């Protein structure tokens, strides 16, 4: 692996969270893993035990396709330095890597289960006309505003 010096004159990073890494320089191996439940509710009520991680998304194997082609790389390094003037980053999150340098091997995995819990609005919807989504997409220029066309 190439050995280089990483130089960053100025960096502004607002947030680094949830298994994220900020790295200056070269690394041989990087592995990051995070999992999260993203629960959205109409009513802001939280119980503290919002759910277990036993959903299939957290245990299903991720298929990694095999590399079947040969990759030939030739490096010509005129200066053994990576020079960056300014980095202005809003956020890195959920097993991400912000790096100025090189990495030989990397494996990063984030699994997020999004759950939306809506209140029962069946009484409000009784007198509304429900239009199947297919009909909306099949007629160009159709728009629905407040339940009417």
TrEMBL record:
<dbReference type="Pfam" id="PF10970">
    <property type="entry name" value="GerPE"/>
</dbReference>
<protein>
    <submittedName>
        <fullName>Spore germination protein GerPE</fullName>
    </submittedName>
</protein>
<dbReference type="InterPro" id="IPR024496">
    <property type="entry name" value="Spore_germ_GerPE"/>
</dbReference>
């Amino acid at each position: 692996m190439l050995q280089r010096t990483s130089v960053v004159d100025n960096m502004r990073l607002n947030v680094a969270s949830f298994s994220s890494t900020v790295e200056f320089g070269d690394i041989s191996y990087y592995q990051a893993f995070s999992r999260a439940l993203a629960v959205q509710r109409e009513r802001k009520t939280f119980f503290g035990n919002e759910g277990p991680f036993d959903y299939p998304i957290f245990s299903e194997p991720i298929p990694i396709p095999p590399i079947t082609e040969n990759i030939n790389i030739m490096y010509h390094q005129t200066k053994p330095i990576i020079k960056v003037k300014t980095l202005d980053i809003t956020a890195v999150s959920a097993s991400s890597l912000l790096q100025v340098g090189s990495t030989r091997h990397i494996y990063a995995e984030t699994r997020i289960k999004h759950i939306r819990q809506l209140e029962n609005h069946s009484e409000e919807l009784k007198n509304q006309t429900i239009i199947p989504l297919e009909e909306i997409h099949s007629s160009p220029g159709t728009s629905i505003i407040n339940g009417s066309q």
